[in-house]
Amino acid sequence: MKAFIVKRYGKKEKLFLTETAEPEVKEKDVLVQIHAAGVNQLDFKIRDGEFKIFLPYKPPFVLGHDVAGVVTKVGSKVSKFKVGDEIYARPADHRIGTFAEFISIHENDIAIKPKNLSMQEAASIPLVGLTVWQALIEKANLKKGQKVFIQAGSGGVGTFAIQLAKHMGATVATTTSAENFDLVKNLGADVVIDYKKDDFENILKEYDVVLNSQDKNSLEKSLRVLKPGGKVISISGPPDSDFAEQIHTNWFLRTIMRILSAGVRKKAKRLGVSFSFLFMRAEGNQLRQITSLIESGAIRPVIDKVFPFEATNEAIAYVESGRAKGKVIVKVM
Asked: Which CATH superfamily is domain 2-124+301-331 in?
């Protein structure tokens, strides 16, 4: 099969298109013929080597974290899917590889594709959808009537988070540039701040939850917009000791992560709020709940551009530029 691989880590490295063997299908796996793959910031961060300390992929490996396609083979103990099923998924860590013609995925990480979405639309959902679900539903326990601040509302995570938070009955604030005001308002944002002109920490007060996706400076400012007992969930770091336990890492890395997050945890404690880091996990059951929201019309995909498979490097570069509104998709077939 054709696949785009990382031959070596590095910011200037491009993915290499090559022929490689079809992946092995274990007893609880399904083989998926990939129709479309979503492109995420995580892809170029892994290519750059940012996460190799706790996600040590050994080059060469196939990149890509979002998939929509058709099941072409099932393992001997698969009970949830059959050949011909149209599915979508975010494969588990260490089993990624959606920039390819086929991928083998554990059945627990898969859901049937929403009936009202095309393959390309479906491929835009899994990683951002699961990220937002695990941040707002699992970690934040977001409730009706609460106030949530979602940074970078026009991005892939932001466009999904605004819709889910609004569906939950929250008041939603976000940041974006003026040209994207209509987009985020149409998704449900109540308060929209032009990050090029205004400082959100001077406008927002007494918020219950912040979904932080930006830099350290924005994270520390976010602590100050929360009410006592409020929560910052960061998907951009720094990793904390809870995350180290989640991935069952060794004592040395646990110590490193504790040190990396010590500053922000101390500032949060002083303000009477909490900080936690989220690195999303594959989860088919949650994806099925997201499917219900999509099929009911509560959440819709937001896609900026679709690139042909051969232009996967260009698709990643476009996401890396920070100009994308919503998700960028690679059309494999």
From this structure: Medium-chain alcohol dehydrogenases, catalytic domain (3.90.180.10)
